[in-house]
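thread: overnight batch results

M.L. [08:02]
morning all. the overnight job finished for the chain we discussed friday. pasting input first so we're all looking at the same thing
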Amino acid sequence: MRKGIVAIALGLTALFAVSACMPTDPQGAVEHWWGDLTPCANRIVQRESGWNPAAVSPGGGNIGLFQINATHKAWIASELGYSWEDLKDPAKNARTAKVIYNKAQAQYGDGWQPWRLTGGTIPNGGCPA
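M.L. [08:03]
and the structure it wrote out:
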């Protein structure tokens, strides 16, 4: 019983420690989640939202820094646990965008495909912004 309580306490402590260390400013959030890919991610954020974390496209189909498309709502909720409004949080939007990048990289060999203006893929393609 004690071991279970200690494990829960340690888990909660780790959760709060991670949350407390998460950058809340847009640039810090992008850098945190994108690492070496930050320069391109920064250009995409500039193009998509002008660094406005609360940006919503006309009609509401895209949201946040990376203008995440509403077609992703269901898996974002089930896989990441985020509501649509949560994506106005810079860290949650940057994390979601990085997951989308990773999925596109695995599926198409082009992680930047979701942000290509043509919608096409360029295997091992560079930054589209």
